[in-house]
Design brief:
By secondary structure, the protein is of the alpha+beta class. The chain is built from 1 helix and 6 strands.
Length: 115
């Protein structure tokens, strides 16, 4: 039973906790900020960064993945910025990138259940 201060869960994608260093840019600007993924889903990420961001800011997330020669760029919109971190919802995500993120989530979930 929920009390008046609890919000119902709105997520449609399962999230997996995964600490992973990334670089973050406002829009497609050249200036990069260090950031860290806290958790990820097929629809977005929760990140920690010192970069000043506001709701509705557009960001580019540079994912440096093991085994990939070049970073993978994912675009998103800041949907919240609070004490838990900065919530980013993916936008303009290619089918290939979406498939890769789904693959990584499944891989990380299996690693966390076997650890």
């Amino acid at each position: 039973m929920m009390n008046g201060s609890e919000k119902p869960e709105r997520r449609i994608h399962e999230r997996v906790a995964k600490a992973m260093p990334i670089h973050l840019r406002r829009g497609q600007a050249a200036d990069k900020f260090d950031a860290k993924i806290v958790n990820i889903s097929a629809g977005g990420v929760l990140i920690e960064t010192e970069m000043p961001l506001a709701t509705n800011d557009l960001v580019t997330i540079d994912l440096d993945l093991v085994g990939e020669q070049d970073p993978i760029y994912v675009y998103g919109t800041v949907v919240r910025n609070d004490a838990r971190g900065i919530g980013v919802s993916f936008v303009r995500i290619s089918e290939i990138t979406a498939d890769l993120i789904q693959y990584l989530i499944r891989k990380w979930q299996s690693e966390s259940t076997t650890a």
